[in-house]
Request: fold
Amino acid sequence: MGNRHKGNSGFGDDHDQADAARGTDAGGIEQPDASAATDAGGSNADLAALLAAKDKEIAELKDKYLRTLADSENARKRIRQQSEESVRIQRENILRDLLPVVDNLERAISAARGGTDIKTVVQGVEMVLAALHDFLRNQGVTPVSAVGEVFDPLRHEAADHVSSDQHQPNTVVSEFHRGYLLGDRILRPARVSVAKDGSARRSGGENDASDIENN
Reply:
């Protein structure tokens, strides 16, 4: 009987040791693991710190984006203002150069109304025309010579086709208005009359004459 009690007592000690290893009390209720709770708290703190760092990074990137957008908009406004100012200055210069031409034309009209002889009036108008040509030349505008040239659809606009014994077919005979170049580009094509092939007309005339003789 004494030996059996000792054996039971040893079994009870082993059971208590196993419960202690599992973190349970004598009644079999598991106790919370302190180390696991500490690890979970540390993980949450690290996650919160990481989220805070990301939020700060996003805020900085957003601020840089907004600053870049504002700088870009300011640059566009500045370029537009400079362009408008440049156009205004160029327009003023052109108009200022035209004013002397207007002055000369007004003088010519006053002279004609005052009974000045026609020769003086013509000279005044010629001076105005010369001033206009100088103005156009200063702006890079030059006239295009067309009469006697072979018709070029890029430089000439055919307004009429005429028969001419003095010009080859497809040759410019006369101008209705002169053409002009701006640099190397056509500002306005010359409006011209072009010589047409007269062989058909002459052939038709000879046939008509022969028919009259035969009759």
In short: The chain has four helices and six strands. Residues 1-11, 18-24, 200-215 have pLDDT under 50 and may be disordered. The radius of gyration is 52 Å. Residues 34-113 form the longest helix (80 residues).
